[in-house]
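Slide 14.
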Amino acid sequence: MKTKLVRVLFLMTAMSLSLAACGKSEEVIITELSESDLDKPEKVAVKRGTVTVSDYKTAWVEPYIEQLYFEGEGNFAEFKVSLGDTVSKGDVLATINTEGLREQADSLNKEIKDLTEGYEYEVKNLNYDLEIANLRLKDAQKRVKFMSENGEKESGEFYAACVEAGNYDSEVRRIELKLRQAKERYDLKLPELKRNLSQVNSKLNKSTIKAPFDGVVAAVADARAGEYVTKDKYYIAIADETRLVARCESIGTVAQRNVIRTELLLNGAVYETELIPRDERYLKEMRNTDEVKYDEFTIEGADNLSFGDNGVLRYITREKEDCIYIPTNTLRFGGGISYVYKDMGGKHEKCEVTVGIKNELVAEITAGLEEGDVVYVQE
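Slide 15: predicted structure.
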């Protein structure tokens, strides 16, 4: 039996290596299957544990890289940095020609300033006129009251005083109307100018690419001054050397939907990972090229890892916890059923089983066996 044991171990090792190299297959390493299971491979015990099905991709550790896009459109002006330059957060990396936009912004700023100053000057003068008119009105009203109290209501002077008071009252109302009209004009015009300025400033802000974090310029597009810029092409990429990620060839967005979780297997350790979402523009751009697509993953506890470390990214696509399982080489198939030979006091008894999820090493059994049963391995 030792010869058979060596052969089984050799095949398992070769399969594991080939899987890591080709980058796709089912899980072939299960911690629940101990070496003791293979000491006497002619029969093994039915166990309870976790069965997983996984795909694998060769992965490597590198700094996080982010592709950067213009958020606006226009004619390309220039790159402010070169490949390999160190940049700080907020640094301008590339620009679109904004000459016409800056002229519009300057013109709108001046128009807003002139409008505000004109309004404030007009209001100041009208308030002065209103103050004088109110004083004159009060004085005229006092005269009318005095003459009324002193029996002069029938005199010509009393009539003239009443007319004068009425004129001043009309003057006050006229000035107050002018103040309201001035405010309405100002309140109507100012928001419009500010909206226009906001739109221009938004275009100006979208006319530059700025560094989102401290880092190093990792890629620069082939762009010439004057060429039309769209929002769908990335022009520069920045690497964050303080943030390490796992990178591997992509399994595709459709396959990603079936992934339960991912892990990085490296230097004998297992690191929890999480897929970093890509900008939809990058995904669209990559779909239109023949270039190899890559996925990037955050690494939990990556402090002891280094740039350039190589490992395997494990995509767990199916998993069943606390289930009954047996080695797959105990399974037999025939007559449209799955079955095993169970040890019944040294005798072989054929036993039909229902198989759940399985991989190259173990298979979940949902019916037909119980934990602790003993089954025979195929010769």
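Speaker note: Residues 99-205 form one domain.
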